[in-house]
Design goal:
The longest helix has 15 residues. This protein has 84 residues and is of the alpha+beta class. It has a single domain, classed as Enolase-like, domain 1 (2-Layer Sandwich), CATH 3.30.390. The protein has a 3-stranded antiparallel sheet with strand order 1-2-3. The two termini are 13 Å apart. Strand 2 and strand 3 form a beta hairpin. It is built from 3 helices and 3 strands; from the N terminus they run βββααα.
Length: 84
């Protein structure tokens, strides 16, 4: 299933997930820190959605209240709520 999320409070403008059976198959990010987000996306492939949320939720970027990883976790929580 493809899932699109538009984050807030970060440089990234859109997250495009492919999730099958509760496992992330791919993640592409529009905007943000290109190299870092490609690395994060690569690390998340093959992980269960719940495990990703547990590992990256609450990470902050500098003085911001959120970060791209935190927004990914928020997106995945929303995905779970919408697909329960």
């Amino acid at each position: 299933m493809n899932y699109i999320y538009n984050p807030s409070g970060v440089c990234s403008r859109q997250f495009n997930f492919e999730i099958e059976g509760g496992v992330i198959k791919s993640l592409s990010v529009v905007g943000g820190c290109n190299g870092n987000l490609k690395g994060i996306s690569s690390l998340l492939v093959g992980m269960k959605v719940e495990d990703v949320i547990e590992k990256i939720k609450g990470i902050k970027c500098g003085f911001k209240d959120t970060s791209c990883p935190d927004q990914i976790a928020i997106a995945l929580e929303k995905y779970l709520q919408e697909n329960a």
